[in-house]
Design a protein that fits this description.
By secondary structure, the chain is of the alpha+beta class. It folds into 2 domains: about 5-240, Nucleotidyltransferase, domain 5 (2-Layer Sandwich), CATH 3.30.420; about 255-493, Nucleotidyltransferase, domain 5, CATH 3.30.420. The chain is built from 16 helices and 24 strands. The chain has helices spanning about 50-65, 105-115, 120-125, 135-145, 145-150, 160-170, 175-180, 195-200, 225-230, 245-250, 305-315, 320-330, 365-390, 405-415, 430-440, 470-490, and strands spanning about 5-10, 15-25, 30-35, 40, 45-50, 75-80, 85-90, 100, 155, 175, 185, 190, 210-215, 220, 240, 260-265, 270-275, 285-290, 295-300, 335-340, 355-360, 395-400, 420-425, 455-460. It has a 7-stranded mixed β-sheet. Strands 3-2-1-6-15-14 form a 6-stranded mixed β-sheet, sandwiched between helices. Strand 11 (about 185) and strand 12 (about 190) form a beta hairpin. Helix 11 (about 305-315) runs antiparallel to helix 13 (about 365-390) and helix 13 packs across helix 14.
């Protein structure tokens, strides 16, 4: 009897790391999870310690070692958070705290770069607007404020999965999906910006530190004896660097080929799909490099999605999310409007000063009214992003992420967007599934990013038309509300 090939996949998230056994049909056989801290300080500093990522990798792998399937692993697939500054020495030891994608300390440097090059030129080169989250700005900040870190580094890595790949293989590599978030890659050519451009920015001396860039899913090496001993694995296992987390999620959700739209409903959220064309930065959309050279991933990101529910739950000390949602959905549709911009917004407009707001409260407003308005407001924001991102009507949306645990919220998503919703089965594992799929395509095992029977659907929901007129009316008011009070947000800041 032939033993089925087993993959070991790792997804290095913002709050923790997931390790999972994934079989050739994309099924998650077993998984383990480890969390790690994030350091925040004034001036927009947000950092993590890369050694925590590796420690979590070892611990999660050791937990899985209790399963005899560890001996069946023939390939390792990696994905994780993108747009980081990770500086390491020749042995892979970090020389800095990782500057995360959400770190905004380099605001002044970003403004200077945009003034010098112009928005349109930067867009044509990199595919996206460049702000304080860009590595262009962050590397310039390091040069000006902490030059010793750059001087001590042998390699610059762009994403958490890059770091794991180096620890496992000794190879400094980055996938092009992750590289496309940094501002350091010519997105059309899928290669690093030239030395002349980097010199003009003021960071030309960092070019020798750049990793080798290749399509997501590419094999970057094999597991070294040292790494194998730490992880409890056999040496020589092939290691594949999958696309960064948004790319892996896109593939794992069944949207790895052109056309199929999906929405991720987590603490943050996004609408995305694969396309032969780039997204429009004017709508706050982001263009990522797809593992396939001729494709892009268009993403409309929402800074705070399910995080609004966490906020209102904590505000009123609600028992749990299920009870809060149940109480809300049993309530009739709300006449209130809620803007879900607790931390600013990125799409379909970019405004770091935007904030959340309830509008329309009266003396009769109840706590359940506020809960319901929050749930509706988040979905109105998704509808707004969907309308801005797509130039064609969506026939259906695959919904994934932790928010899909509530079928009633998923039904509200279908009702307000007026688009049928397919709720992904095993929604919390789409990232590791996508990393494995990308590796299998790169290895030549399969020829498509959407093989049949890989994307289980938990339930399909059709829009309920009972409140169609009300939702459309409220959505139109929602669209008018932010522009009306935008000047107030600016003055309040």
């Amino acid at each position: 009897m032939t033993t089925q090939k087993m993959w070991l996949a790792f997804d290095v998230g913002t709050t923790g790391l997931k390790a999972a056994f994934v079989d050739a049909e994309g099924r998650i056989i077993r998984s383990a999870y480890r969390s790690y801290p994030t350091h925040m300080a004034e001036s927009g500093v947000i950092e993590q310690d890369a050694t925590d990522w590796w420690k979590s990798t070892i611990e999660a792998c050791r937990e899985l070692a209790a399963d005899d399937k560890l001996n069946q692993v023939e390939g390792i697939a990696l994905t994780g958070q993108m747009q980081n500054v990770i500086l390491i020495d020749a042995e892979g030891a970090p020389v800095n705290q990782v500057i995360l994608y959400s770190d905004t300390r380099a605001r002044a440097e970003a403004e200077g770069i945009v003034r010098r090059f112009g928005v349109e030129h930067l867009r044509s080169l990199t595919g996206n607007d460049q702000d304080a989250s860009s590595l262009l700005a962050k590397l310039l900040w390091l040069k000006l404020h902490q030059p010793n870190q750059l001087a001590s580094a042998k390699h610059l890595l762009f994403g958490a999965a890059d770091f794991l790949a180096f620890k496992m293989t000794g190879v400094a590599a980055a996938d092009t999906t992750t590289a496309s978030t940094t501002g350091l890659m010519d997105i059309g050519e899928r290669r690093a910006l030239d030395r002349e451009t980097l010199d003009e920015i003021g960071i030309g001396e960092t070019l020798p530190l750049f990793p080798t860039m290749s399509s997501g899913g590419t094999q970057v090496g094999t597991l070294t004896e040292k790494a194998a001993n730490e992880l409890g694995l056999k040496t020589g296992i092939r290691v594949y660097l999958g696309p960064g987390d948004a790319g892996a999620t896109t593939i794992g959700a069944g949207s790895g080929e052109a056309g199929r739209v999906y929405a991720y409903l987590g603490t943050s959220g996004w609408i995305a799909f694969t396309s032969p064309g780039r997204a429009s930065p004017d709508q706050g959309a982001i263009t990522l490099a797809h593992p396939k050279q001729t494709y892009y991933i268009q993403v409309a990101p929402l800074l705070t999605a399910g995080g609004n529910l966490e906020w209102v739950r904590n505000l009123f000390n609600a028992d749990d999310y299920d009870h809060l949602i149940e109480q809300s959905i049993e309530h009739p549709p709300s006449g209130l409007l809620y803007l879900p911009y607790l931390n600013g917004e990125r799409s379909p407009f970019r405004d770091p000063l935007a904030r959340a707001a309830f509008v329309g409260m009266s003396g009769r407003t109840t706590k359940a009214d506020l809960y319901r308005a929050v749930l509706e407001g988040v979905v109105y924001a998704y509808r707004h992003a969907l309308n801005a991102l797509l130039l064609f009507p969506a026939n259906a949306i695959t919904l994934t992420g932790g928010g899909t645990r509530s079928q009633k919220w998923c039904q509200l998503f279908a009702d307000i967007t007026n688009v049928p919703v397919d709720v992904a089965g095993d929604a919390e594992n789409v990232g590791v599934r996508g990393a494995v799929l990308a590796a299998r395509v790169a290895a030549g095992e399969i020829t498509t990013f959407t093989p049949p029977d890989h994307f289980p659907i938990k339930i399909s929901l059709t829009p309920n038309q009972e409140h169609r007129q009300h939702f459309d009316h409220q959505y139109n008011l929602f669209r008018e509300l932010y522009p009306a009070i935008k000047p107030i947000f600016a003055k309040m800041s």
